Amino acid sequence: MTATSSASDAVPTLTPRLSPEAEAFVRSIGSATDLPAFVRNVRAIANVAADLDARVALLEQAITTDVALTSKVLRVASSALSGTGAAITSVKQAIMLLGYDRVQHLATASSVFNQIEETAPAIKDLLVLSVLTANQSLGIAVGAGYGRPEMAYLCGLFRNLGEVLVACYRARQYLEWSDARDPASPGADGAEEAFFHFTFEEVGIALARQWGMPSELIGTLRRVPPPDQAPSDRLHHITQLSADLTRLSYCAAPEAPRAEAVGTLVDSYTEMLGVERKTVLESVLIARSDAAPTLGAMSVTVAGWMAEREERAAAVRLEAQSGELAQAALDQLTMLGEAKGDDSAAEAGLRAAVSALTAQRKDATAFTIGAATAATLEAARSAGYRRALLALSTEDFKLVRGRMGAGPGSEDLVRGFIVRPMAACGPLGAALEARMDLFVDVASNEGRSFRRDRVLKDLQARCVAVLPLVLENRLMGCLYFDNGSDPLDASQTLRELLCAMRGHLVAAFARHRQAADGTGQQDVRRTA
Amino acid sequence: MPTDFPLPPAGAEFEVRGNVLRYSAAREGICELRVDEGIAFVRFPGRQDGSQWQDASQHSVFAAFTAESPIATFLRTHGIDPLRQFLTGISAPIGSPPGSSE
After folding, report:
1. Residues of chain B numbered 55-74 and touching chain A (CB < 8 Å)
2. Predicted ipTM?
3. In this complex, is the C-beta atom of B16 within 8 Å of any C-beta atom belonging to chain A?
4. Which long-range contacts (CB under 8 A, 24 or more apart) does B40-47 make?
5. pTM given for the model
């Protein structure tokens, strides 16, 4: 198929109602594509090698640099020989069997599509959805006794052409728009106009016209209301019903009342199409198996794709929840940092330290693990603890070891603090395993079980605070404060303020990790 | 360059041999089609240089679907993906040297 005008020509045949933004998008299609190096190399073969043997050798050389492509070519060649008992073991053999042109075409198409998938990560989902819509359209058409099921298939396949093209050619913007969409709602057609200044529908239609697609297909690219609201031809309604079924079945949030919405949707079409509700609903299920041959070329199975999609949605939900929780925690920390009239001197000092760290979190350069640790250890000491320690988990998370201390004898503390975070290894290990905060006076009645703890015994500690550091459900380490043999009355306010300091420290770890991962996300999204 | 394939005349006989559909077209003689990796390929065994598989033009594929031809059913059930082929085609017209229109 060819475009009706060359790239350099104006596009006067486009619909006159096209917005300037839509027209600019349509003109940009294909013109700014950088071909993969592989394609450029393969295309150049014809210019550098005149005879077939030399061309075959160069093509073989180009293909064998890509393991996945090599495997694909060998697979296709083997399928061509299936049943003969012969085996294809080299790319050269495959080229000889399949023909130079066919292998070149397969290889370049595969390479181009890999590049599309790399630069437009949303495209895979959209293509799977299109194949499902196509197969549903086919099933509905057959069930409704509509005489052109193959055409219905084609219309279903291209129904979302505009969105597919935008996802390909405005990949970054598309992801931005997609991320900002309300996940609880699959969205209605046209909602994208506020973001892109054109609709998917208008650019899809314009490009379908430009590329000379069948007029009936172009007619179905436009959204049509259900038959009771806007009577149209059956092909158009079948395509629309199928597209809406896909949207409700695969794009709505899991908590949305799908069954009811699907039922209402189908009921609005059954009379006009002369199809039973049961038949339409069955077509959704049958489409999943009928899509297998087409999706196979993309190395996709519907079950695997659905599982992967659900996993991604769950991660997004978790991220949103943790973001909300973390923001609430940050608000709480801000409130905790506000001075209270009835604070003791220790509490007032600690509150000021919390407030200072809250302010520091807003400055990406100043808020580091080192700065947060030093501030926390010093704050604990100013609150009355003689020694303060940061301990971190080893890489395998089997031990928590002292790393940085403050106060008299802190070097011995750093060396001597080695805890296995397991209940079997004593009360301290049990508290870390359970991620439980401890404020205990070992000399008191409540603290008697801790007297037997080997680590605490070695450290000769009496009043002890242990605050686990947990990030993304992993025990990163703990803060440990003790007061030697002296008693210390840690008030509830003081405990809350120490926990607030710990919260800041965990946030510093989270920010450091994000910087290392290069995710660039806000720290509040992970620190709940 | 993508190759057009003809639609079979009324009453034409179809034969499926493995993954290949074979039918007789009026002027073009025997035509064979197959689908690999979502792409349709065509060849004309009766022609002098017809033993090589060529990629089928999207125009012909669309015509098969529009005409409700058994060819469309064969291509569909063997995994053709015209949308993917379209995307690949507009991104880089396969078979054409860079800079030229198809």
Report:
1. 55, 57-59, 62, 64-66, 68-69, 72-73
2. 0.90
3. no
4. B40/B75, B40/B80, B40/B85, B41/A102, B41/A105, B42/B3, B42/B5
5. 0.64
